[in-house]
Design a protein that fits this description.
There is one protein chain. Helix 1 crosses helix 2, helix 4 packs across helix 5 and helix 5 crosses helix 7. The protein is α/β, with parallel strands linked by helices. The longest helix is centred in the last third of the chain and has 29 residues. The chain has one domain: Glycerol-3-phosphate (1)-acyltransferase (3-Layer(aba) Sandwich), CATH 3.40.1130. It has a seven-stranded mixed beta sheet, with helices on both faces.
């Protein structure tokens, strides 16, 4: 992990704790080493920062939409912890790069829905997530982020003060299982079912804590 990444992740962790009562549930589900894919719902521009802050003891690599890399200053910043992907038509080179990084032992964060959900509801997974999981045989850790759609929803220009929580689930194993397109699509379906289950758990956790 680079010093700059550690500093940035820690900084956002502290800021989220102070301003948004940041709560991390089941962080122990995330392996401390080895190739891992963390998959999460996506409702806000804050989501990558939330995941990075939650998993601050490991450096996360993000698959970011290619358009971000073309924005002055922002592009240079994004490039330090992510690599580009065309969400509509992922290129074979992008798939190969993700698999290479996973086999090298990196942790990659993916948003299987392919983009932000405007109303907070869960969308179907794109095939790319299942394809990368299948080819890399990496462990897949589902996560659900709660609250960022209130703090900074899609289309909003200003941040609102509210609680942010993230919960991690049990690993979805892909090693020594089937292969092929049907299997890859089933991985995507399994991922979204697990994220839905985490959504219900975090809501239950919130009700029990209040």
């Amino acid at each position: 992990m680079t010093l700059a990444y550690r500093f940035t992740a820690t900084l956002f962790f502290v800021l989220f704790k102070i301003f948004f009562r940041f709560k991390i549930i089941n962080i122990e589900k995330v392996p401390e080493k080895g190739g891992v894919i963390v998959v999460s719902n996506h409702v806000s521009h804050l989501d990558p920062l939330v995941i990075g802050a939650a998993i601050r003891k490991r450096q996360s690599t993000f698959m970011a939409k290619s358009g971000l890399f073309k924005i002055p200053l922002i592009g240079a910043f994004v490039k330090t912890f992510s690599f580009p992907v065309d969400r509509d038509t992922p290129q074979p080179s992008t798939i190969k790069e993700a698999v290479r990084r996973l086999k090298k032992g990196e942790l990659i964060v993916m948003f299987p829905e392919g983009g932000r959900s405007k109303d907070g509801s869960l969308l179907d997974a794109k095939r790319g997530t299942g394809l990368i999981a299948s080819l890399s045989e990496a462990k897949v850790i589902p996560a659900y982020i709660d609250g960022t759609n209130t703090v900074l929803p899609a289309g909003a220009k200003f941040i609102r003060l509210s609680s942010i929580r993230i919960i991690f689930g049990d690993s979805i194993e892909t090693k020594d299982r089937e292969s092929g397109r049907d299997f890859q699509e089933r991985i995507g379906s399994d991922i979204m079912k697990e994220i839905q289950s985490l959504k219900l758990k975090v809501k239950s956790y919130e009700n029990n804590s209040s």
